[in-house]
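BACKBONE GEOMETRY TOKENS
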Amino acid sequence: MPTITLSGVSKSYGGGEHAVRNLDLVVPDGAFMCLLGPSGCGKTTTLRMIAGLEQPTAGSIAVGDRVLDSVERGLYVPPEKRGMGLVFQNYALWPHLSVRENVEFGLRMRKVPAPERRSRAEAALRMVHVDAAMDRYPSQLSGGQQQRVALARMLAVNPAVLLLDEPLSNLDARLRLEMRAELKRIHEESGATIVFVTHDQLEALTMATDVAVLNDGELQQLAAPMDVYDRPANRFVAEFVGSPPMAIVETGPAPTGLAASLLRHVEPRAAGKAPAAVGIRPEALRLGPPPDAAWHEEALVEAVLPAGSSWTVRLRVLDAELYAVSYTPVLAASGDVLTCWTEQLHLFDADGVRISSWDRAEATA
């Protein structure tokens, strides 16, 4: 499957409201692209336009040299002629058909001969590890098994592009973890291009080869998963990706307290203009004796929140509240005073655009 290209794509539903606004997006052949963002940001609308279920009100969508949508040229290719498979949040399985018959359904619509239908359906069910249940009905399956059957139905028709609209949101935590691993394995084995819609940053970071972060119908950043986390393009991405979210400290025209402390540390290293805000990720905020050249301040412990494999600590640092995440036990209690420090800070300008980051390990490498 050639590259999918969205050029200047917009979608409005009247009244001047845009679900998607002037979107330029390239999905490389064989990529696992996650469209990530909060509810109402335009990610599902974008997926439905790629699938052909929605038509853009401006711009064009092409697969390689083949134009699927072009408002300017009046071109539109219907969904069934796009060679794409779509898996909805609702599994949409036929309750009166067996698992095997559900998976064969798309092949039957394409008039594939019965012996080939059967072999392709069984191969798809083996790929998603539900072949032992092929003679059962959907009501006899767990939620995770039903999700696998929905995937198998799409894989059986061998689409070059697989479009997934939040397919894991109805599963419990354990099944979501299992299905994330399954989707990654299926992508590696099938080589299909996958476009996956999610509001769950963990899904995007763990599965995707590329992440497109959307907000208010506009693309905020397109990058590899860890680049989105380590080098967010702007404050929205910085605060949306990460749990707990990145703390943003406004500097203001006359900084005091924590803002003044941070600026004394980072201003000599800031490239170009002075930062209007400084960001600190909770995972990068440490407790204990600081190394040389690290930013540090005394912190009052307000709460220690154990979460099994990690500890989240709420701190009062000068005039601000910060959170620190530790992966070793925190032997402190509310009211204790500790030293907090970090070697990683993110700098943003007055428009919220990331100027740079300061990472002592990178700076001294």
Observations:
- The chain has a mean pLDDT of 88.
- The first strand starts at residue 4 and ends at 12.
- The radius of gyration is 24 Å.
- The CA atoms of residues 235 and 263 lie 18 Å apart.
